[in-house]
User: Fold this.
Amino acid sequence: MQAEQTMNATTALPPSSFRVVRKDDKSRADVPFWDSITAGILCFGLVYLTFTDWLVEYFNQDIFVAISRFSRAILLGYFLYYLARTGFSFTRYGFRFGGMLFILAISLFVYALFDNHVLEGLYAYVRTLHWIIGIVVAYRLVRSGALTLEKLANAIRAIIVIAVVFTLFYMRTPAFETSYNASAYPLLYTLPLLLMRPKLGAKDLIFLAMAVLGIIVTVKRGAVLGLGASVLTYLVCAFYVTRSARHVTRLIMLSFVLLVAISATAAWRWERIQERTTDEKLLDPQKGGSGRFGLWRRIYYNWSSGDTTVILFGRGNRTHMFTHPNPKRIVHAHSDLFAFLHDQGLYGVLLLGLFHLSYLRILFPLLFRRDARAPSFAMGYVVLCCVNLYSGAFKDPNFLVFALLISYVAGTSAKPPARYFFLLNPPPDPPASEEVKAQALVHDPVS
Assistant:
């Protein structure tokens, strides 16, 4: 009894004008109203932008392009306003990943200012800034308890439904076979967060099967390769982490669902798969990889043939887009690695490496502790490596869907001060009353 009184007295908090959120407390009453609104805007914004982006892809009309850009600008403006309220420091509230994001944001901004077409360069920069700021905002919402895994899962499910439905409609148009990737990569971004849930029910397996269908049906080789490698990584890490027979049974069931979804979709699109995998140009040094091999050779040669300044700091923002032999044709690197190498030189490769190193600093401790979040986060790293190498993600604002994985894992891994998560920008505590001090002194066994 005396020990219980001692614990209550020494952990008692003095009266305050703000509430605290216990790390293990899921009560909505403890979540700040403003953060709850922001979390809702973030989740709704992601779903809404997925819808507007598909309207642009499907109808290809200026009105939908304007709606999509305006909506994304509003969401970014709101993110910046939230940062103004909670602090512009990216590393605030223990976000160690934020330091790297700040360096990346500042570096790309400086390069954008020296773009040959400044306004176009700044527009491209804003597309990247959208997900950089989004990671920081989402992290703080996770820390405050406003952005939960359930909210993220609901948003992910809605994104999967929109992406798959539009993909199936898009298949009926002539533009589908030549489209860049339809929704293959956005769907790939959703899988790690969807599999993050500790208990995958029948509903989750259905959405998982839908996402797999939406990826494979596009027969985009890069996305399918990323799907296979990431799913294999997830299963290997999951068997490594799991410690009970019940979890092994669930993993076997999950593997079966994935196998059925992949096999059914592959059978449906088998003719197209054969066409894409038996293409004579598949490994051609110039035309292989849908022309990527030749493009990467030109980008590398154009960078390596420069002087010392070019080798170290690149040829300038977006200059890789003008490396085609036809000066009137604009190309995309389809690779963050080659784009950074050409535009920012070895400094750009260093930035990309720091991003991966920051990710691994979170992943390795999870694997070492056999944390339940490790399989999904390891799966996410494989997805990140794939898209950085042969697709390109950093210039895509939809990368925020994937980046939420970083925010959630970092936010739930950060150590709270003492036993509590304090709300963002709390006012200082008033001094403890004499009664509280006296009670703590009487019952403190050390005294």
Remarks:
- Confidence is low (pLDDT under 50) at residues 1-27, 417-433, 435-447.
